[in-house]
Amino acid sequence: MTSNEPPPYPGQSNEPTPPPSYGSTPPPAGGYPPPSAPGGYGAPQGNKMALWSMIVGIASLVLGLLCGFLVVGSIVAIVLGFIARKEIEQSNGTQTGSGQALTGIITGFAMLALVILVAVLIGTGAVDYNFNVEA
């Protein structure tokens, strides 16, 4: 060990790690195994539709509660979420984002449920939207 090398962590040695063994087959040209997923060596990629499903679902829920009911955003979030979950399932582990897709599906259905609830309450007369104020 030279003076400018840090001491090893507990449980580690200063010995160099041996190269990986490839069994009876020689290593591929270049000495590294080929990438198993696009964009990296075995690194799964996030599904873009899952991300957009989550974004649209949360935005439609928040904006729907603040500004009015955005049913179109809820439907888009639900459709994107189901498509993304199907793609992630079929990717055999090369894509991630199932939780994001599920978030988009849940928020989309929650917004649709609120729209239906408000429509029923207004339709039955339980909630009155008459804003005439007489003094």
Description:
The protein has about 140 residues and is mainly alpha-helical. The chain has a domain at about 45-125. The chain has helices at about 50-65, 70-90, 100-125, and strands at about 45, 95. It starts with about 45 loop residues before the first strand and ends in an 11-residue tail after the last helix.
Q: What brief labels describe this structure?
A:
mainly alpha; 135 residues; 3 helices; 2 strands; single chain
Provide a concise account of the structure shown.
The protein is mainly alpha-helical. The protein has helices at residues 48-67, 71-90, 98-124; strands spanning 45-46, 95-96. The chain contains 3 helices and 2 strands; from the N terminus they run βααβα.
* Range of helix content: 40-55%
- What share of residues are in beta strands? under 5%
Structural class: mainly alpha
The major pleated sheet works out as: 2 strands, parallel
Average pLDDT rating: 81
Low-confidence stretches: none
Number of helices: 3
The total strand number stands at 2
User: Which shape, going by the Cα principal axes?
Assistant: elongated
This entry's quaternary arrangement is single chain
What's the arrangement of strands in the largest beta sheet?
A: 1-2
Order of helices and strands: EHHEH
Termini separation comes to 90 Å
Gyration radius, to the nearest Å?
A: 27 Å
